[in-house]
Specification:
five-stranded mixed β-sheet; Aspartate Aminotransferase, domain 1; lyase; glutamate decarboxylase activity; seven-stranded mixed β-sheet; single chain; 40% helix; Glutamate decarboxylase 1; alpha/beta; PyrdxlP-dep_Trfase_major; Aspartate Aminotransferase, domain 2; 2 domains
Amino acid sequence: FSLDLLPSKNGKELTNYFLRQVVDVLLHYIKKTFDVKSKILDFHHPHQLLEGLDGFSLELPDHPESLEQLLVDCTDTLKYGVKTGHPRFFNQLSSGLDMIGLAGEWLTATANTNMFTYEIAPVFTVMETIVLKKMYEIIGWKETEADGLFSPAIGGSISNLYGILVARYKQYPEIKTKGMTALPHIVLFVSEQGHYSVKKAAAILGIGTDNVIEVKCDERGRMIPAELEKNIAQAKRKGQTPFFVSTTAGTTVYGAFDPLCDIADICEKHKLWMHVDAAWGGGLLLSRSHSYKLRGIERANSVTWNPHKLMGAPLQCSAILIQEKDLLEACNQMRAGYLFQPDKLYNVEFDTGDKTIQCGQHIEFFLFWVMYSSSGTYGFEAQINKHMELAKYFYKVLKERDNFKLVFDAEPEFTNVCFWYLPPRLKHIPKGFERDQELQKIAPKIKALMIEEGSAMISYQPCGDKVNFFRMVFSNPATTQTDVDYLIEEIERLGKDL
């Protein structure tokens, strides 16, 4: 059946009909996504999807489905999913639906080429170097001395893995040929509020999670430099060899920024690789009002930066940036003769595939390039400043209401605003174990009711000794103050009788 859609098989009319119908499906979905009166999702439990819904079956057939049924299936796939571009979707750090970025993703899917060599991706490979140079410049690095790549379809977690991988190779290049037996007992450091992907990377790379040392944070979730210094000294006394420090610019839960300058001083003193996980907060570098929060990032050896978060690019779009030319290639290259021949007719420096840990490489960056072309630095700046203003507004509104309690009394450092909702009956229970046990149940229950109604979506979690609280984040360009006010009213409506 799929061969009938190939123009070369005399299927031009059928092909045009099918693709136009698919575009109609997508346009209808986009229209519903931005309509605040529409549901964020039509929720069903997993067993319901597995059993089938109103003619929508996930089972794979032995015989081809009709064209009409395929179009219905495409419609239903979107119908029963979550509209992450909806103005009232606040559940993840990556949200929104950028039309220019979406068009960029369509274009790369249509091109259907691979990023490993210039010969099959001539425009894209050169274009990626332009995007990366811009990112080096924004960080404060010299473009002639830096290197980087966009990570394969997983995002910041793989970028963080690259940071550890390259740092280990830099210190112990023999790891590439001799393996773990060539290493001393190495350890690395991350804040207790750092992303879990650092531990996962340590497990994948054979370092082991026990050799990831978590550094204490202050009350706002920022790494304490004195604690890092103490942890390094303790590790050395135990005969361990520190080699890597992962700092965070915008933690997942609290939105905290580690003091990068102070940590850079410690890393230079002990000759440790300094990595900045700016997956969430990297976009602030484009804001003249807020970029100071990342002061010191220019001293990092490597940086993770996800444009698909604060900058609103479609998933996935994540870069690993290294402040040393050729290190990525030295660490990862295997010189596959069928791909990376040195005697090609063009400049083989653009055959960048040997810098990566995978072979096949999707075009991750183009949607960001086309967004940057349409917005420019100042367009991104305005969008990011709007997110920060919404967070400040949300904080001020909550602070004035006695049925909400903020996790932190001070203004938010980023777009994360963490808070509890207190139903009327809980306000009369004294602070202590009993109230905490009841408060622990409130956020999950309200979220469940929201999902069932499809009215809004916001995340919750415990953190340390703090019971479940809501975490509001702003990264969706479609969100307005009206949506913020709606969320507060919705929480009160669903929670007042709990």
